[in-house]
């Protein structure tokens, strides 16, 4: 326990990004962030994509403050406040009547929170899942809360509940109106499928035409296809996807991931007025993946797209070198030839002439900004090294 007179308490955590292979789209309760269907995701490795968050409490702080990537942000944001409130509530409940004076005083102090991503937010890689998972993890550490935290993270951003676990994660829709059973749990750890790899094709840093929050509510209100998807299609697909993961069946996993991504974007098109998250380049990548698989006679790569134009490609490790070379030939890098592939190392590959002829049609130079090579990874981590704190002893950002 913390000495009650200690001026400053601090905790730092990291948390991962996740990519849904059975998509969440649509809330049945916008305040509690309760989904109309369950979803399933793959947690990506934090060596390539992570958020780091430091939370500090001190009796010297005069107000709650928040910094994102070095710039001060609105700590009064309702979703940030919901997470703060819920973690503090759990901390009080945990203390019960024991009245541990250190935690009691800690709970009465204002907090400072600093958060940083090791990837460009503008790249259209959803940072809210990692951000809120990390916020909740750091606050929970600060206050000594060890309860199930995916429900709290969900109050920040729906998909954030899935970032509370590593590997393969299911977010159960839940039935209760209060959301207490709308939780995430791990289907399999990241070690379960060591050969699985992920390639993020970053196509453009444009801002989304419609935010996910606004888009999904319009879809709920106007798309009959979305209703059919939530009630009929998703429950069956979830069971299938879990089985493919358990059996490490890439053929089944990849096919279903592509179908589910396509249907999610079809519900966006079925929304009125329609929403377009994919662009010409996204469609070009989809066609490329299908030509590549057709050439090989089975599913070697699978795409999935969230609410934006970036492609996330799943493949097994032995396919990566060749497919990256196919992407390089299809979208020759404009200037950053050496920086085109980032993350895990990628070997060189010589493409057979018949593959080039069948798969690489008209190259579009400079269309893909870069490829990030990563793999499934673990859930939130505590950072023990005090030199890694984002806040200094004065409670202000270090850099």
UniProtKB/TrEMBL annotation:
Residues 377-399 are annotated as: Disordered. InterPro entries: GHMP_kinase_C_sf, Mev_decarb, Mev_diP_decarb, MVD-like_N, Mvd1_C, Ribosomal_Su5_D2-typ_SF, Ribsml_uS5_D2-typ_fold_subgr. The keyword Iron does not apply. Its EC number is 4.1.1.33. One of its GO terms (cellular component) is cytosol. Residues 15-184 form the Diphosphomevalonate decarboxylase-like N-terminal domain. One of its GO terms (biological process) is cholesterol biosynthetic process. It is an enzyme of class 4 (lyase). Keywords: ATP-binding, Cholesterol biosynthesis, Cholesterol metabolism, Lipid biosynthesis, Lipid metabolism, Lyase, Nucleotide-binding, Steroid biosynthesis, Steroid metabolism, Sterol biosynthesis, Sterol metabolism. Residues 198-382 form the Mvd1 C-terminal domain. Belongs to the diphosphomevalonate decarboxylase family. This is Diphosphomevalonate decarboxylase. The gene is Mvd.
């Amino acid at each position: 326990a913390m000495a009650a007179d200690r001026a400053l308490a601090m905790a730092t955590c990291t948390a991962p990004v996740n990519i849904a292979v059975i998509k969440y789209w649509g809330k049945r309760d916008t305040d509690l962030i309760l989904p109309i269907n369950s979803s399933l995701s793959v947690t990506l490795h934090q060596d390539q994509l992570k958020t780091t968050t430091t939370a500090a409490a001190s009796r010297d702080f005069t107000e709650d403050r928040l910094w994102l990537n070095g710039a001060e942000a609105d700590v009064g944001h309702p979703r940030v406040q919901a997470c703060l409130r819920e973690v503090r509530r759990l901390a009080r409940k945990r203390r019960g009547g024991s009245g541990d004076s250190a935690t009691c005083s800690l709970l009465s102090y204002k907090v400072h929170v600093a958060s940083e991503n090791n990837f460009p937010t503008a790249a259209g890689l959803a940072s809210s899942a990692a951000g809120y998972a990390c916020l909740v993890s750091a606050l929970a550490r600060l206050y000594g809360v060890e309860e199930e935290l995916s429900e709290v993270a969900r109050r920040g951003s729906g998909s954030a509940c899935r970032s509370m676990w590593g590997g393969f994660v299911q977010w159960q829709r839940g039935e209760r109106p209060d959301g207490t059973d709308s939780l995430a749990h791990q289907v399999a750890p990241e070690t379960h499928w060591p050969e699985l790899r992920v390639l993020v094709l970053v196509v453009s840093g444009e801002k989304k035409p419609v935010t996910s929050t606004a888009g999904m509510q319009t879809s709920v209100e106007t798309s009959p296809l979305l209703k059919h998807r939530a009630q009929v299609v998703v429950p069956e697909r979830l069971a299938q996807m879990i089985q493919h993961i358990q059996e490490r069946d890439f053929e089944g996993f990849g096919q279903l991931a592509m179908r589910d991504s396509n249907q999610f974007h079809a519900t966006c098109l079925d929304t009125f007025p329609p929403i377009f998250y994919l662009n010409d380049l996204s469609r070009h990548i989809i066609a490329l993946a299908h030509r590549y698989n057709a050439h090989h006679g089975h599913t070697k790569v699978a795409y999935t797209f969230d609410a934006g134009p970036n492609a996330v490609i799943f493949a097994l490790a032995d396919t990566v070198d060749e497919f990256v070379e196919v992407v390089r030939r299809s979208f020759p890098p404009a200037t950053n030839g050496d920086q085109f592939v980032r993350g895990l190392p990628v070997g060189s590959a010589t493409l057979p002439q018949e593959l080039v002829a069948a798969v690489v049609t008209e190259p579009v130079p400079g269309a893909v900004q870069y490829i990030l090579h990563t793999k499934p990874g673990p859930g939130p981590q505590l950072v023990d090294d005090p030199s890694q704190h984002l806040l200094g002893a004065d409670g202000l950002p270090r850099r």
